[in-house]
Amino acid sequence: MAVLKFFSKNNQKSKSNARNSKSDSKYYGIPKLIFRIFKLAFLLFFGLSLLGVIFYRFVNPPFTWLMIERGFQRKSAGKEWKIDKKWKDFDDISDNMKRAAVAAEDQTFLEHHGFDFNAIEKAIEKNSHSKKLIGGSTISQQVAKNVFLWEGRSILRKGIEAYFTVLIETFWSKKRIMEVYLNEIEMGDGIYGVEAASQAYFHKSASDLTRQEAAAIAVIFPSPLKWSATNPTKYLKHRQYLIMKNMKRLGPLDF
């Protein structure tokens, strides 16, 4: 009987230990499951983003998330849906427009690899003493934001923007980056790209823009919904003058 009791107790202990081990395995298995999900999500994001960047190296982006967002904003305001956008190949865009974009937004565009750290440092310094935020984004960063991302200023979005900036600088040429930039950037209420802007403001093709007209369009890049290329304020006129001055100073733009 004593022997039977001994084996019975051991059997109960082994069953209890088995239940505990199963419970522990379930408990410790949850972090592993979460890790696997995050790992899968990361690999999926990396693969799709890489494919997207390579795809847009050869195919012109049909729309951006900003265009869709602005479209819904217009609808909610009682306006018609509007995306005025006409693609213009790089070689068919006036050199004046390309020089104006570089002079206004990113004078080291052909030299950097996606980030102008001097401009970022200056922007941080100015923002620390001002309520009005000043950006230090390069043209490459703006393309990454405009084509692949949503509007916002969160740390997460800026981090993903930096990631896409590295990708497009790796897989696209500077010529392609500038071509996409000038065709996708917002240039007015429902107006996107230099061709649509040129037609709307000056009733001509982007291939025929003069130096003054190109500078007038470039000056409204930072705030195209508030500013006008054909009805500039005194501040914008001064900015236009500075852009034209910088256009003269720029060396040859060897794309």
Automatic annotation (TrEMBL):
GO molecular function term, any single one: pentosyltransferase activity
Gene3D superfamilies hit by this protein: Biosynthetic peptidoglycan transglycosylase-like
GO cellular component, one term: peptidoglycan-based cell wall
UniProt record, GO biological process: cell wall organization; peptidoglycan biosynthetic process; regulation of cell shape
First-listed, main subcellular location of the protein, grouped into a coarse class: membrane
Phylogenetic placement of the source organism: Bacteria, Pseudomonadati, Bacteroidota, Sphingobacteriia, Sphingobacteriales
Ranges for domain Glycosyl transferase family: 84-248
Top EC class, one word: transferase
InterPro entries: Glyco_trans_51, Lysozyme-like_dom_sf, PBP_transglycosylase, Pep_trsgly
Topology of this chain in the membrane: Single-pass membrane protein
Protein name in UniProt: Biosynthetic peptidoglycan transglycosylase
Annotated family: Belongs to the glycosyltransferase 51 family.
Metabolic or biological pathway, per its Swiss-Prot or TrEMBL entry: Cell wall biogenesis; peptidoglycan biosynthesis
Record's keyword terms, sorted: Cell inner membrane, Cell membrane, Cell shape, Cell wall biogenesis/degradation, Glycosyltransferase, Membrane, Peptidoglycan synthesis, Transferase, Transmembrane, Transmembrane helix
Enzyme Commission numbers on file: 2.4.99.28
Compartment annotation: Cell membrane
HAMAP family: PGT_MtgA
Function: Peptidoglycan polymerase that catalyzes glycan chain elongation from lipid-linked precursors.
Catalytic activity: [GlcNAc-(1->4)-Mur2Ac(oyl-L-Ala-gamma-D-Glu-L-Lys-D-Ala-D-Ala)](n)-di-trans,octa-cis-undecaprenyl diphosphate + beta-D-GlcNAc-(1->4)-Mur2Ac(oyl-L-Ala-gamma-D-Glu-L-Lys-D-Ala-D-Ala)-di-trans,octa-cis-undecaprenyl diphosphate = [GlcNAc-(1->4)-Mur2Ac(oyl-L-Ala-gamma-D-Glu-L-Lys-D-Ala-D-Ala)](n+1)-di-trans,octa-cis-undecaprenyl diphosphate + di-trans,octa-cis-undecaprenyl diphosphate + H(+)
Transmembrane segments: 40-59
Domain of life of the native organism: Bacteria
